[in-house]
Known about the structure:
This protein is mainly α. The chain is 56% helix and 5% strand. It is built from ten helices and two strands; from the N terminus they run H-H-H-H-H-H-H-H-H-H-E-E. Strands 1-2 form a two-stranded antiparallel sheet. Helix 2 crosses helix 4 and helix 6 packs antiparallel against helix 7.
Amino acid sequence: xxFLMIGDHRDLHSFPTRRSSDLVGEYLRDKDRTPLYRLAESxxxxxxxxxxxxxxxxxxxxxxxxxxxxxDKLLQHPHDLIQKAVGWMLREVGKRDKAVLLHFLxxxxxxxxxxxxxxxxxxxxxxERAFYMKKTDKGLDIDVYIIGFELYLE
Length: 154
């Protein structure tokens, strides 16, 4: 599909994510969307980013399934560019149906990277943002102190 048209380039930083995502999203609009899942699992940052941002096409049509599935797949991704993209797409879902976003966050907000969470809840009220940002680990509030080179948890 898309990558066949431009070649198997792994250095996609010169091809803007938004534009490539528009192309991929449009191309797959009426097709099997399995290629999006393969991109998310590819191990290449830019392909992973394209996979989630390509779902913006579907979000605008109130089709959230692919976005939520990919957000789950990429939930623990270590790179901030992926965290920002996932949070951004979740925020877009919330703009169209806040209940869907709230349901997604309900069981995940405590384990989401903070960058992803911040992006996802950006349009929430200050009180709602404060609730979600009071991140806990497995339900326990943890204070972390770094003294010298040792880490102490209380």
